[in-house]
Design brief:
mainly alpha; 20 helices; globular; 429 residues
Length: 429
């Protein structure tokens, strides 16, 4: 453990500039995440006269639109320097926060939500994970796990101040304050940290400056991965954590009403969620480097399945903390898993394009959840009762995943042909 600690400290010290940039991106993405937006759901619905289903539909349409734009423009992470791309996205992010606060009608409200989802949930995380996948090779799992801490740290440190500011200043000034932080602090910091690209610097002996190949010894494209069984087998595991985590956070105001809790009483649960997410992210990053990221697949959804199933029967708010903590275990593990698995399977030359596809699908899964569950709530099926089905789904997928790592290893060693697609449109070596 001491030796690992020394190695980890040296790794952090050597790469503090680039890890810091990724950590800042994931941390600041909090202002576009579901848990943050949902804190303002009561005020937004009151101001605009929206029901649960109406608000869910606006959120869904805006998120789907952001996913479409991310799919179309996510490859900018392959062609535009991060030092230019990230500050531009940050300024758009700040503008969206102001628009969210002062939208005069539902059309502009939807446009503001679109901006929050595209910049925060979409591009900030996409840029961070693409950079880690491209900049690191042998220690990619560690790099990803460190940068993923930003998501959990945001949830741990920002929710209570946000709720406190809302109570003391009001919801609109709180959003303006968030916009000021993004515009005046995050944007210049990103510009400074990303002014130099890591690939231009001397690398350690464990790293390689050239792009690394994926499964079959090739650099996969979007078209080639869509023709292979692995992508479709991984898809349910890719989409489920985002779907479940989003609907739990999105309906926290509704859960509080059903259970008779207050948001202030529920807020410590997010710190527990973040702490568990941090621990699992670091452990999963180490495990991905040690055993390979595919080894995490059978276990990744088990804690979330148990945690979300608890939400239905519990009445004590302290058990809400446990439910969120278990959900956080899955979210931390899933982040490290996909951050390491995608570049190792599909290579790094087209990683921005590949990650844009994966992130788009994940964003889409987070988009449809609030609308579907909101309609069910309006129909009389409260969200805590819906959680039993979500829990069973997670546990059923876990059983299905047991054979995946072994099958993937066989696929990787089945042939000496570097191109698994004897097709003229397959991936290009």
């Amino acid at each position: 453990r001491l030796a690992y600690g020394r190695v980890m400290f040296a790794f952090l010290a050597e790469n503090r500039r680039w890890l810091g940039a990724g950590l800042l991106l994931t941390y600041a993405s909090a202002f576009g995440q579901t848990w943050f937006i949902s804190l303002f759901a009561g005020e937004i619905r009151t101001v605009h006269g929206l029901g649960a289903g109406d608000w869910g539909l606006i959120y869904t349409l805006a998120t789907v639109a952001s996913a479409g734009l991310l799919f179309a423009r996510g490859a900018l992470a392959d062609t535009m320097p991060f030092g230019r791309l990230a500050p531009i996205v940050a300024l758009l992010f700040a503008l969206s926060l102001v628009a969210f606060a002062f939208a005069p009608n539902v059309w502009l409200l939807g446009l503001a939500v679109f901006g929050l989802r595209f910049c925060g949930q979409g591009m900030f995380g996409h840029i961070a994970m693409t950079a880690m996948g491209r900049w690191f090779n042998a220690r990619r799992g560690r790099a990803v796990s460190v940068v993923l801490l930003g998501f959990s740290l945001g949830e741990m440190t920002l929710i209570l101040p946000t709720v406190t500011l809302m109570e003391r200043l009001g919801w609109r000034p709180t959003l303006v304050a968030a916009a000021a932080v993004v515009a005046l602090a995050v944007t210049p910091a990103l510009a400074a940290l990303l002014a130099r690209d890591r690939t231009a610097q001397p690398l350690s002996a464990l790293e390689a400056a050239a792009p690394t190949t994926g499964l079959g010894g090739v650099h996969w494209t979007r078209a080639s991965l869509l023709r292979h069984w692995l992508f479709w087998a991984l898809l349910p595991f890719l989409l489920t954590p985002g779907f479940v985590g989003t609907v739990v956070f999105f309906h926290q105001v509704h859960i509080a009403a059903v259970k008779g809790w207050t948001l202030a009483a529920m807020a410590p649960g997010f710190a527990v969620y973040a702490a568990f997410g941090i621990a699992s992210s670091l452990a999963a990053g180490w495990a991905a480097d040690r055993y390979g990221p595919a080894a995490l697949l059978p276990a990744v959804l088990v804690p979330m399945g148990v945690g979300v199933a608890l939400i239905g029967p519990i009445q004590d708010v302290t058990l809400w903390y446990l439910a969120l903590g278990l959900t956080g275990l899955t979210q931390g593990t899933a982040g490290a898993l996909w951050g390491a698995l995608l570049p190792s399977v599909y290579g790094t030359r087209h990683l921005g394009s590949v990650r844009a596809l994966a992130t788009t699908l994940m964003v889409f899964s987070t988009a449809i959840g609030p609308w579907i569950t909101g309609l069910l709530i309006d129909a009389g099926l409260d969200f805590p009762r819906q959680c039993a089905v979500l829990g069973l789904w997670c546990l059923a997928l876990s059983l299905c995943a047991v054979a995946l790592p072994r099958k993937l290893r066989r696929e990787a060693t089945a042939t000496e042909n570097p191109d698994p697609f004897p097709h003229p449109k397959g991936p290009v070596p």
